[in-house]
Amino acid sequence: MDLSPLPQLSAIERISPSFYSTSVKCMAGAAWYQFGPQDSPPVATGAILGSAFHAVMEMANRGAIPAGNAGLAAAKEAFDRQAHFLFDRAHPLVRIKFGLVQNVPYYHQRRSRAAAMAAQASNVARRTSETHAARMAVTRSTDKTLRRLIEARLTSADGEISGRVDLLDCDEGRVTDYKSGHAPRAGADVKGEIRQMRLYVHLALENGYFVNKASIIRGDGTTVEIEVPEVQAREEGNRARAVRQEFNAAVAGGRALLDLAAPAPSTCAGCPYVAFCEAFWAKASPEWEAVCGAHAEGRVLGIDESALAGADLATFRIDCRRGSTLLQQLIVEQVPREWLSIGSRLPAVGDLVRFVQAFRAQPSGNEQRPILRVDRFKSTTIWIVTPVAVS
Amino acid sequence: MPYHTILDWRLGLDMTRLAMNSAASIDFSQDYWTNLLARQAAPYFSAFDLQTETINGVYCGLDETCGEAVVLTHPLWDLNSANYCETLADILYILEGRSLKPKCISVFRALRFPFELPE
Questions:
Q1: What is the distance in angstroms between the Cα of A133 and the nearest Cα belonging to chain B?
Q2: First to last CA, chain B
Q3: Which SS3 state, helix, strand or coil, does residue A129 take?
Q4: Which of A72, A297, B51, B102 has the most other CB atoms within 10 Å of its CB?
Q5: At the fourth CATH level, which superfamily is domain A270-386?
Q6: In chain A, alpha helices (H)
Q7: Nearest CB neighbour to A109, from listed B89, B94, B97
Q8: Burial (0-12, 13-18, 19+ Cβ within 10 Å), A211
Q9: Which residue in the set B82, B88, B89 is minimally distant from A105, CB to CB?
Q10: Is B84 on the interface with A (CB under 8 A)?
Q11: What is the spatial distance between Cα A61 and Cα A146, in angstroms, rounded to a whole number?
């Protein structure tokens, strides 16, 4: 695939909770998401499942999922509909890798859980709307008489912060955010999530809804709830305003996207923009691999063709000079030819290429050089940086 | 290597069905599995003091007191959570919803090593 040009930055009128929590770690990552083309890089399949999970929970919070097995079937159908819709529009590499949306990793696990959670949430929503018959929840409405707001866009009084709240329950005094993935491992950094939740509470308060709790409900069924006193929410709001101001000042000062990057192992781990981020390649080192994964940049020294079970494969020998893996000659093993077919042309000997989100395997057999393997779960991608000069 | 014990005509039939139709459903709904499990599942579970229950056509052994559950899975089902089939994903979530900690063992293994539970 070819590296796409860097997006042009412009000032942001309003800062969203996700822009804010990302930019605290790396402003370039937040800006990339905001201004970059939507179809590059290939979307992580987790985003497809996440969106499908949200679609099902939105239905559930409106009480639109019937009780019992009929409800489970309806929730699964809604999940499938949204997942198919997104998969059909996903980056060609995602479609080539998985063929069908059902083959996306964790598809059935997330779907089963979403359906069961939705059936439960829909029961609660129906009970609530019975007790507040004239004030039923309506998706995307911010009517002040409503007791439950679903997917409502809230904007701060000064117009500087804006975000869509998954669920705001006035009776419970709580905002809820749905996250499709698993709970973070013990000891993982969850500060970004906490910032986001405080900002949602701030938005609710600024809009006249009394809220002092925030909960995250995950696709694995776990729920965490935090108390958010008004003072904390206000402070978070002010920090978000400061980040917005800082970003806009950087744009006004003519700073380019990569000037805003803050590469570090934990920041770059899982970042979808690693392939494009010169700041990452300039700073990454082999010590980053344990946290950040294996990303390699190097010249192609040779390409060996093979076939396995009907699939044409290419094995690359590269001279890795930069990245978060061993800086030496590496073998990048058995890349399906089909994965390489997207873009202007196939990588050739002499090209400078980047392999991102690879998996480093132990050398085996007669091969003593370190081996990188493509990884289905980690969304391995291969990019041509500088084509070899044609004489 | 003694191959005889790992030759399984039921599995062979499922592989043949798959070869003929890649969308063939691979579960326990075929007679040859239904009859086998109706005879063998309950004794396997009762040897470990587990209560037998079928969920969505799959035999499970439950110990509600200890919060444990064992699911007898089809030998061709992938037990990696990233690749669960729909039936297995549903069953595991139902069991987790009942506060049970499910573990899986392939029927192929369970019936050949009836003294073994999944770790």
A1: 31
A2: 26
A3: helix
A4: A297
A5: Nucleic acid-binding proteins (2.40.50.140)
A6: 17-25, 27-35, 45-61, 68-88, 92-98, 107-131, 191-206, 230-252, 265-268, 278-283, 289-292, 337-340
A7: B89
A8: buried
A9: B82
A10: yes
A11: 13
Q: Tell me the ipTM for this assembly.
A: 0.89
Residue A110 burial class via C-beta count within 10 angstroms: exposed 0-12, middle 13-18, buried 19 and up = buried
- Two tokens, residue B46: 């009762």
Helix (H) or strand (E) holding B96: helix B86-97
Residue type present at position A159: G
* CA–CA distance, A64 with A300 (Å, rounded to integer): 55
Q: A295 is written with which tokens?
A: 């990303």
> What SS3 state is found at A275?
helix
* Contact with chain A for residue B92, Cβ under 8 A: yes
Kindly report the nearest CA distance between residue B47 and chain A, in angstroms. Answer: 30
Measure CA A296 to chain center: 22
Each domain of chain A, given as residue ranges in start order, spans: 12-21+132-262, 42-130, 270-386
Q: Closest-CA residue in chain B for A109?
A: B89
A97 contact B CB<8A: no
Which of A76, A104, A108 would best serve as a mutation to test chain B binding (most B beta carbons within 10 A)? A108
Instruction: Please report the number of interchain residue pairs, chain A to chain B, with beta-carbon separation below 8 angstroms.
Output: 33
Q: List per-residue pLDDT tens for chain A, 391 residues long.
A: 888 788 889 999 999 998 998 998 999 999 988 888 766 666 678 889 999 999 999 999 888 888 888 999 999 999 999 999 999 988 888 898 899 999 999 999 999 999 988 988 888 888 776 665 444 555 556 666 567 888 899 999 999 999 999 999 988 899 999 987 777 777 677 788 899 999 999 999 999 999 999 999 988 778 889 999 999 999 999 999 999 999 999 999 999 899 999 999 999 988 888 998 999 999 999 999 999 999 999 999 999 999 988 889 999 999 999 999 999 999 999 898 888 888 778 889 999 999 998 888 877 777 678 899 887 777 788 899 875 443 3
Q: Is A111 on the interface with B (CB under 8 A)?
A: yes
Other C-beta atoms within 10 Å of A304: how many?
Answer: 12
Contact between residue A379 and residue A47 where contact means Cβ atoms under 8 Å apart: no
3-state helix/strand/coil string of A79-120: HHHHHHHHHHCCCHHHHHHHCCHHHCCCHHHHHHHHHHHHHH
Please name the residues in contact with A184: beta carbons below 8 A apart, sequence gap of 6 or more: A190
Residue labelled with tokens 């729909």:
B86
Domain boundaries, chain B: 3-112
The angle subtended at Cα A97 by Cα A296 and Cα A4, nearest 5°, is: 50
Cβ B82–A116 below 8 Å, yes or no?
A: no
Tokens matching residue A316: 């690359």
